[in-house]
Amino acid sequence: SFPHATSFGIVTRISAIGMFTDAELSRRRPAHSSFIDLFNKHGFRTVRIMDLCGDSIHDYSLGILTRNCRERKQTPPMHETPGMMQERTSLVMEDLDASVHRMIALLKDRPAIYFYCSDHGVALGEEGKMFQGHVLPPVYRPAMFVWYSDAFASRYPDMVRALKANRLKAVSHDHIFHTLLSLASIRSEVVRNGLNLASPDARETPAPLQPEVLAEWLAAPAPPQPLP
Q1: I need a labelling partner for 118 at 20 to 30 A (CA). Which of 17, 84, 197, 207 fits?
Q2: How many CB atoms are closer than 10 A to CB 160?
C-alpha cells in the first residue's frame, strides 16, 4: 500500500490525464499519449471496462484516453441487472472488499500484478464538504496499492523489492505511467526511473495541495454582467 499518494486532480476528468499519460503535478500538459498505446504496440491485450457512459463532462477525458484499448466492455446499467444495487451495497458492507478478493483469485496462479489506484479521494465532512471536487487535502489522497502473485515475485524479484522499498514515499499519479510500463517489461525512452516505483531510483514527488495548483483546470467563473 502507498498511504502517502497524491492525485493529479480532484475530479475524474482531471485525474485521468495524470493517471494515463506522463503529465505531472508540476507539468500539467502530457508530452506523450496514453500508456495504453505503448501496451498495444508491444502486443498486450488491453481491455477497458467502464461503469460510466464515457460521453459526459465527468468522464469524457477517461473515454478519450482509453478509446484505443483493443477491447471495450460496458458494465450493465443497474436498472437492467436485478440485484446489482444489492451487490454493490454488499461489497461496501463486507469486511474484505469482495471485488478485490475476486480479482486476486483470478490472478493468483499467474505471473501477474494488480495495480490499483483511485482517481481521487473524497471529503467526509471536512469543512462541511462531502465527496469529490473540493480543494481539500483528503480529496487529493487516492487509494493506491499493488498486489503481485508468487509467480510474479519469483520472476521479477528486483521490481518487487523496489516496490516494497518505495511504499512509504510521497508518491502521486505522476508515477503510474512509468511504473506500469516498467512492470510490463516495456523498455522505452519515455520511462523515467525517477518516477518508476519498480525502480530503486524512484524519487518522491511534491504534494502541492494549494488551490492555485488546479486553478487552470477548475471551472472558469461566470463573466460579470454589465450594469443596467
Answers
A1: 84
A2: 18
- Taken in order 143, 149, 152, 153, the sign of the CA dihedral is positive
pLDDT of residue 169: 95
Q: Is residue 62 a contact partner of residue 220, using CB atoms and an 8 Å limit?
A: no
Residue 151 to residue 102: CA distance in whole angstroms: 18
Sign of CA dihedral 20, 22, 27, 31: negative
Predicted model pTM: 0.82
Q: Which amino acid is at 164?
A: K
**Residue linked to cell 521490481:** 159
Q: Are 97 and 71 in contact (CB under 8 A)?
A: no
Q: How far apart are CA 27 and CA 21, in angstroms?
A: 11
The type of residue at 216 is E
- Pull the grid cell for residue 142: 487516492
For residue 174, give the nearest of 200, 222, 142 by alpha carbon.
142
For position 181, what pLDDT does the model report? 97
